[in-house]
Design goal:
The protein has 110 residues and is mainly α. The chain has a domain of 33 residues. Helix content is 35%, strand content 0%. The longest helix has 32 residues.
């Protein structure tokens, strides 16, 4: 049989454990209550659409723009680096020459 001293100790431990669990549940409930949003009120973001005075007499679409945005056809596109014949004729490249590749010594075979 279990002695009275052991029975009392286990009863005290059970009471302590249940108090700790109840305290943890209370703290959780309070923190969840703090997270809940307060009474949320919604507001209309934009006012309802209204017709402007005299809208019937104004044109619906804007006038055609003066420029169409198309590329002019008189000037053909030029390459960034002209070919060798064009360079001999005096054409200069638009970009500077590329840097030379760096070469490392060959890897010795084992």
């Amino acid at each position: 049989m279990i002695s009275t001293r052991t029975n009392r100790a286990s009863r005290k431990e059970m009471i302590l454990a249940s108090v700790l669990i109840a305290a943890g549940l209370g703290v959780s409930a309070v923190s969840l209550a703090q997270l809940a949003p307060p009474h949320a009120q919604t507001a209309q973001a934009t006012p309802p659409l209204q017709s402007t005075p005299g809208a019937e007499s104004k044109p619906k679409e804007p006038a055609e723009p003066a420029t169409t945005g198309a590329r002019p056809q008189e000037i053909p596109p030029q390459p960034a680096r002209p070919d060798a014949d064009a360079q001999k004729a005096g054409a200069t490249p638009a970009l500077p020459p590329a840097p030379a590749e760096k070469m490392a010594p060959p890897i010795p075979a084992k």
